[in-house]
């Protein structure tokens, strides 16, 4: 089912949401492929130790840390009764990993699987009721993990960045634009292999046109994405792996219940439509009117509308938060 919701209607949904108590946040650690992962576990204020809850792994945009948009959505989900885990991927934030600030789809997919396995060990969590909530670029990692990991029972994506080779060319300036980015990445990779030292560029900037994200909001705004926990650097050697990563190929292999919340004015809606068309399992789509990619990260109205939709989806597919589980 595909539903289009105007911003005015989204406001009504958001304002109609109940007031929730603040969740508790517990710092946690677990292992992924020999490295320590550091995370934050958001626990509903009304946790009953006798009733294990459905739980969610919540992941954010590329090059981000757990305190950015992932934290916002994890808190929203905990407000609605779910246990929610955010974490820093290997090489990012507080987590281990020798190669820093390097956007590697394969590593991040494996870390999502490790996070799901960790959640299953928690006494607060019903191990058969774990879902995944992906935002922006990590949406591709989440659906790829879910397509091969049956422990992820349900999936929701918010403002998903989902691309394949065709969408990559449409997004990055055609074959020539892609080739230029690959050349930049290959040069950085060659230097790393030769010297063992990484070369970094700004992840985001309003003035430095070398930045991976040039003249973008959120990351360049104090109080939004520009926070002390976030290191504003990226290893450009990631480009080839990122551009070759195909998230859309996971669609026909994804059989879990699925929800997508997006907007036609957010990032690469053509990729989202292409992925949605390729799904063969149960699916729902909610398209908000006139909501930008960065609005989805932290603006009250779209965040609440997306969170309400995700909570309804996960309640329907994982069971309500108040039900006892194994």
TrEMBL record:
Record keywords: Hydrolase, Signal
Domain (Xaa-Pro dipeptidyl-peptidase-like) ranges: 34-288
Pfam families linked to this entry: Peptidase_S15 (PF02129)
Single Gene Ontology MF annotation: hydrolase activity
Signal peptide from the UniProt entry: 1-21
InterPro entries assigned to the protein according to its UniProt record, in alphabetical order: AB_hydrolase_fold (IPR029058), Polyketide_trans_af380 (IPR051411), Xaa-Pro-like_dom (IPR000383)
PANTHER family linked: SUPERFAMILY HYDROLASE, PUTATIVE (AFU_ORTHOLOGUE AFUA_2G16580)-RELATED
Name recorded for this polypeptide: Dienelactone hydrolase family protein
Organism: Mesorhizobium onobrychidis
